[in-house]
Amino acid sequence: MSLFLMPFSPYKISFLLTLVSGTLLSISSSSWFTAWIGLELNLMSFIPLISSKKNQLPTEASLKYFLIQALGSAIIILSSTLTLLYPQLALLLVSLALLLKLGAAPFHSWFPQVMEGLSWLQAIILMTIQKLAPMFLISYLSMSFYTHTPIFLAAVFSATVGALGGINQTSLRKILSYSSINHMSWMLIAMLINETSWMIYFFLYALITSSVALYFLSIQSYFFFHLINSNTTPLTKMISILSLFSLGGMPPFSGFIPKWIMIQEMISAGFFFALLILLLSSLVTLYFYIRLSLASISISYAQSKWSLTFFFHPTSIYSPLSSMMNLFGLLMPSALLIMWDFKFIKTNILQSCQKKLNLLNLEPTNKKAFAPI
């Protein structure tokens, strides 16, 4: 039995703590050797969480995950030996190794296969926590031609593969895995432009993806036909549909906020080709979520009377948690949008006033009042 199926297992808690400790060690390390130790600690803690003696799929998934991550770690060690002789080649190898650990295209083929063998709780960890350490390490790399080029190409390939790979999928876990690959392309481009924008994107992505996965867990849905045959409350259906639209980046939901910020930054940085690819891929991925939403709408609800079960599914503790996370994610974008717009408009107005004063050769009486905030 998988450790995630045993409630309050001390082994599960200990491995989870070790997993988080390995991630924090990699993020806060000041040397690549310490970062490598953190990655290995994270790997050795995640393998027992997904392996199972009674089920072949989790065991196969854990073996695939171990082999891929071990290959990435070996490439990192190899690059460290080449640092003095071939520093540019070492940077290229480190970039490729971290992209392999992330599951970015064209090194993505293992990610949907591993996702297919995991439960929803294990999939949440793989799509969120397990991506933190490699993402931070990529952001720590000194940007040069040998790091900028592979990251940019991986972002373009990830956007294309994430969009086209999930079109004919019937497995919900594979759909979310290709969606994760597509979202990764936005975060990789964000690293090339700004050091902090990808963190905002990752936080909102992790929140929305976790809530969607918890919703699928609450109704025990792993394939497309499970959505059609499931019996959920109208409120749960509505929130799940809105969360899927938010995950697809449809305005005005929270999933649109990081993409909107990235669109502005990419236009300012001149990444027009990458922006075109990312926008077209986002339209294709939105098709996945519209298809899932239509399947959820077509579900016939057996109860004809309004009752307390209208608000929460009575058979699972994950449905109210998923509903609260989704509501938080849907209410948050309005406040963020207002604050961002106010700051952006105020800065532009003050800068335009300063330019006009400079043209008229007038000195402002109070220079601090015209400083952009």
TrEMBL record:
The keyword S-adenosyl-L-methionine is annotated on this UniProt entry: no
> Can you supply a Gene Ontology BP term from the record?
mitochondrial electron transport, NADH to ubiquinone
Sorted alphabetically, which keywords does the UniProt record give? Answer: Electron transport, Membrane, Mitochondrion, Mitochondrion inner membrane, NAD, Respiratory chain, Translocase, Transmembrane, Transmembrane helix, Transport, Ubiquinone
Catalytic reaction annotation: a ubiquinone + NADH + 5 H(+)(in) = a ubiquinol + NAD(+) + 4 H(+)(out)
Which residues fall in a coiled-coil region? none
What EC number(s) are associated with this protein in UniProt? 7.1.1.2
Record bears the keyword Coiled coil: no
Major enzyme class: translocase
| Residue ranges crossing the lipid bilayer per the database entry | 65-86, 91-111, 117-138, 150-169, 200-218, 238-257, 269-290, 317-340
The NADH:quinone oxidoreductase/Mrp antiporter transmembrane domain covers which part of the protein? 29-284
Q: How does it sit in the membrane?
A: Multi-pass membrane protein
Q: What are the recorded GO MF terms, alphabetically?
A: NADH dehydrogenase (ubiquinone) activity
Where is this protein chiefly located?
Answer: mitochondrion
Q: Name one Pfam family in it.
A: Proton_antipo_M
Q: Where does this protein reside within or beyond the cell?
A: Mitochondrion inner membrane
At the top level of its lineage, which domain of life is listed? Eukaryota
Q: What job does this protein perform? A: Core subunit of the mitochondrial membrane respiratory chain NADH dehydrogenase (Complex I) that is believed to belong to the minimal assembly required for catalysis. Complex I functions in the transfer of electrons from NADH to the respiratory chain. The immediate electron acceptor for the enzyme is believed to be ubiquinone. Core subunit of the mitochondrial membrane respiratory chain NADH dehydrogenase (Complex I) which catalyzes electron transfer from NADH through the respiratory chain, using ubiquinone as an electron acceptor. Essential for the catalytic activity and assembly of complex I.
What family does the Swiss-Prot or TrEMBL record give for this protein? Answer: Belongs to the complex I subunit 2 family.
Protein name listed in UniProt:
NADH-ubiquinone oxidoreductase chain 2
Q: Name the lineage.
A: Eukaryota, Metazoa, Ecdysozoa, Arthropoda, Crustacea
